[in-house]
Amino acid sequence: MIFNKDTAEKTAELLLQINAIKLNPKNPFTWASGWNSPIYCDNRLILSFPAIRNFVREEFSKHIEKEFGKPDVIAGVATGAIGIGMLVAEYMGLPFVYVRPEPKKHGRQNQIEGFIQKGQNVVVVEDLISTGNSSLLAVDALKEAELHVKGMVAIFTYGFDVATENFKKANVDLHTLADYEHLLHLAVAKNYITEKELATLQEWRKNPSTWSV
């Protein structure tokens, strides 16, 4: 669920401007999963643009407090959301931790890096939601540490049905700055794509694992 329409369209436009999101229906990308995709999203680029990263941290901070109340801790999902999560925590004046995909194999074998206490309220910051599986592993780690996960916020989601089901099953409240639907609407309006390319992009999301040009 997006926070609101205005934020979704503004965020989408900024991501397109800096090529954090690339749309290329004619020459699709190949994801690590092996899927062919007419879209590629790399939100790490946001960190290189001060005005845009400030917009993202301020929108996150405002909406986190509105939706969840002020938490005790902000947690970023490693590695993509560490930078943005830390910016949000700094802006809100809150402690920050980050969550690895799995515990380290050496040292203290931490999966959660940073200081936490049982019973604390935490909001999880993520950069991108595809299926939601890796994001929800971070939630599981925080719950195992006996923290109360108020919800998760992300910069962008593809809006896959499988992600919706995964978050519903995990009983995790997800809110995003932008999503695929508002991205496509904005991309057509601003002439990033044609109506024909729009149709291709809409078709891809119906069956992304089997789609091909």
Automatic annotation (TrEMBL):
Its cofactor is Mg(2+). Orotate binds at residue 130. Pathway: Pyrimidine metabolism; UMP biosynthesis via de novo pathway; UMP from orotate: step 1/2. It comes from Flavobacterium solisilvae. Homodimer. Its EC number is 2.4.2.10. GO terms for molecular function: orotate phosphoribosyltransferase activity. Catalyzes the transfer of a ribosyl phosphate group from 5-phosphoribose 1-diphosphate to orotate, leading to the formation of orotidine monophosphate (OMP). It comes from the Bacteria. PANTHER family: OROTATE PHOSPHORIBOSYLTRANSFERASE (PTHR19278), URIDINE 5'-MONOPHOSPHATE SYNTHASE (PTHR19278:SF9). Belongs to the purine/pyrimidine phosphoribosyltransferase family. PyrE subfamily. 5-phospho-alpha-D-ribose 1-diphosphate binds at residues 100, 104, 106, 126-134. The keyword Transferase applies. It catalyses: orotidine 5'-phosphate + diphosphate = orotate + 5-phospho-alpha-D-ribose 1-diphosphate. Residues 51-148 form the Phosphoribosyltransferase domain. This is Orotate phosphoribosyltransferase. Keywords: Glycosyltransferase, Magnesium, Pyrimidine biosynthesis, Transferase.
